[in-house]
Amino acid sequence: MQRFVSIWFKHLTTDWFTLRRPDLRDIAFVLAAPQHGRMVVTAANPIAEAQGITEGMVVADARAIFPSLEVLDDKPELTIALLRLLAEWCLRYTPISAIDPSDGLVLNSSGCTHLWGGEEPYLKEILVRLRNKGYHARAAMADTIGTAWAVARFGQVKAIIPPGEQATALLPLPPAALRIEPAMVQRLHKLGLYRIGHIINMPQSVLRRRFGPDLLLRLSQALGKEEEALEPIRPVLPYQERLPCLEPIVTATGLEIALKKLLDVLCLRLQQEGKGLRAAAFMGYRVDGKLERIEIGTNRASHHSEHIFKLFEQKIAQIEPALGIELFILEADKVEELSPLQETLWAENGGLGATEVAELLDRLAGKWGENCIHRYLPAEHYWPERSIKRASSLLEKPGIPWRTARPRPIRLLAKPEAITVTAPIPDYPPMLFRYQGKLHPIKKADGPERIAHEWWLEGGEHRDYYEVEDEEGQRYWLFRSGHYDAEKNNKWFIHGFFA
Question: How much is the CA Rg of the chain, to the nearest whole Å?
């Protein structure tokens, strides 16, 4: 007997953003992408949905409904990447896991549920662990993929449909639960067919003639009259090497020898396949059954065993052998392609491609943490706060060139800080300003450079920037917010420092 589980992630991408930015947890935000010259909402978190903001809405209309809405740039390939990772994670519950674009997974749970004590604890275990990870998930189990999909998204009562009762479960659900096109759903509604129960007993010839073969196919698949094929994911085989020991190892020297042997074998394999590791773990299984584990990461893919050994060497002291370790495992958790062009970079004398630079950064990150090193690239924004973005790796190339038409400060404040300014007449550079209690008389100034607000992302006034130099030779980047107005106090800010 075949049994299937359909898992629905209603807020997949917004959940992912919330996990990485906890400050978004209690605010309304959406993801947006350009479509035909307009920014369109591609996903909304639950708080935004409660305000009436939905997918497909123009960002400007969404802001009209909720002015304080936070808008973030969507990542085009994020959904498929997340679903694949979650599908691989679900392999602990079934040998067959498949992606169900664009917001779900399908698991073949046949013969698996007894390992968790039955279907109910099996499904509960999956949902609880997904929710603990931070994802809003719903799931259902049935004899067919179609019925499980329909109940997971439209069901109101129970999530586990007993064997052979898929027809009963489908009767109260809307036609959209059959995975048909929205246009076909509208045609059914115009004819007063608002539930699957209204069409399930109609003659097949009538359904085919009025609505085409798609509706009949989906109905037959949901009822189990026609098989539906799954395309399971194929997880990448792990880059892992194992070293069992005849006698338990208890000394630091023994740990180092085991690590070197495993590194030589693993790095040779990576070299032959043209790959390098970006993250690796060295594990030791103790005689008492406990696991000792240390991890390292690199700024770029590497299969140089000596360099990787030095990274692990800093952390070997964290391993406690106790009565001894009887099995060692070295696993490359993250592996990337290492092209022949990258190999030539090891011969360079300087720059980001130099071996010495990459290895120095690895040692610094291993000693003080990965968050102590940052590299930035230009972003496609004119607004200064958005004009740079953090690079994902040492060798990531910028998508656009750095803008050099106007000078920019070597240090840009994450948030402009308010200052008091004295200016002779409107639109003239300031004569002096006070910052953090210190008065700075201005000797030289250049400007203004007007930078307009990115109105398609958020509202706000433009800025008029000035480059100024005080009597001590220090140079600053100042701006006035909005047009000069004699009836109100114009707000001035400091935004950066030049060399």
Answer: 30
* 492 in Cβ contact with 430 (< 8 Å): yes
Q: How far apart are CA 496 and CA 467, in angstroms?
A: 10
CA torsion angle 101 49 176 128 (round to 10): 60
Distance, CA of 372 to CA of 261 (rounded, Å): 31
User: Domains of the chain: which residue ranges?
Assistant: 80-223, 239-368, 411-497
**pTM given for the model:** 0.53
pLDDT digits (tens, 9 = 90+) for 245-260: 888 999 999 999 999 9
- Residue by residue, DSSP assigns 9-75 as ETTHHHHHHHHH-GGGTTS-EEEEEEETTEEEEEEE-HHHHHTT--TT-BHHHHHHH-TT-EEEE--
Contacts of 307 (CB under 8 A, 6+ apart): 355, 359, 362
CATH number of 239-368: 3.30.1490.100
Confidence category of residue 344, pLDDT binned at 50, 70, 90: very low
The string of pLDDT tens digits covering residues 434-491 is 998 899 999 999 888 888 888 778 878 889 999 999 999 999 999 988 887 766 667 8
Amino acid identity at 6: S
338: which residues sit within 8 A by CB, 6+ positions away?
Answer: 270, 274, 275, 276, 301, 302, 303
